[in-house]
Task: inverse folding
């Protein structure tokens, strides 16, 4: 039963990643008509393993090999399928093979040049390679193709932040969102990488305001203050956590 085995394989929380890897290997070696879906799910399983610090390195390597080989087989069968090439790019990217990942993204764009997400992926890989101008330009192409969707603007702004063009980034955000303080993981990453503490503090203060019943938001804000060298406000954030949530006193005391 391919479908049942696939569901089991992509549920490592239930059976463990080692068993998932073995089951995925069997599925990819089979002659099932669902090999395309199996190969794509192998990429997702590889990503799950990479994000789990408890998974052994050899299991991660095995899953990476399976994902890459499985998707290469699909690309060989369907060379004009842009989606398959993008999946192969994800597998290469997760394995740290950025040149090969970029080749596949560019091939996907050549096949389907109107997909904004493809340009975002090109930008992400260019950024990872240190090609910041190329990353920003790719994000801008995706933004234009998306008809200036606000979420896509965050990538453009992040690219400008990485290049040190803060005024341009603010203009992009203001135009797209009506504000320069936007709750976005992409912007958080850019601010953190460039040590833009005022913008990062503003973002976390907004998160605290949006989630007043979550003490973790205050702890995160305190951590940002500490990284910015602002010990006074870091302590203030922790003390506010204790005042609002007495059960956090021990953790806040340890942090101080």
Result:
């Amino acid at each position: 039963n391919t479908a049942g085995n696939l569901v089991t394989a992509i549920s490592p929380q239930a059976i463990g990643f080692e068993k998932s890897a073995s089951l995925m290997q069997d599925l990819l070696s089979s002659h099932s008509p669902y090999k395309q879906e199996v190969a794509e799910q192998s990429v997702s399983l590889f990503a799950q393993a990479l994000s789990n610090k408890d998974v052994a390195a050899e299991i991660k390597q095995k899953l990476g090999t399976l994902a890459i080989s499985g998707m290469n087989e699909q690309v060989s069968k369907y060379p004009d399928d842009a989606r398959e090439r993008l999946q192969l790019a994800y597998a290469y990217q997760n394995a740290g093979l950025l040149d090969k990942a970029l080749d596949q993204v560019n091939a996907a764009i050549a096949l389907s040049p109107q997909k904004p997400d493809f340009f975002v992926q090109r930008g992400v890989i260019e950024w990872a390679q240190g090609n910041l101008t190329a990353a920003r330009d790719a994000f801008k192409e995706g933004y234009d193709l998306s008809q200036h969707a606000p979420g896509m603007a965050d990538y453009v702004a992040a690219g400008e932040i990485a290049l040190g063009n803060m005024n341009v980034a603010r203009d992009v955000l203001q135009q797209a969102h009506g504000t320069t303080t936007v709750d976005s993981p992409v912007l958080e990453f850019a601010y953190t990488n460039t040590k833009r503490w005022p913008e990062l503090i503003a973002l976390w203060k907004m998160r605290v305001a949006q989630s007043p019943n979550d003490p973790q938001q205050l702890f995160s804000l305190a951590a940002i203050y500490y990284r910015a060298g602002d010990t006074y406000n870091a302590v203030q954030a922790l003390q506010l956590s204790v005042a609002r949530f007495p059960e956090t006193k021990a953790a806040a005391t340890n942090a101080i």
Observations:
- The mean pLDDT is 95.
- Residues 71 and 77 are 10 Å apart (CA to CA).
- The chain has 16 helices and no strands.
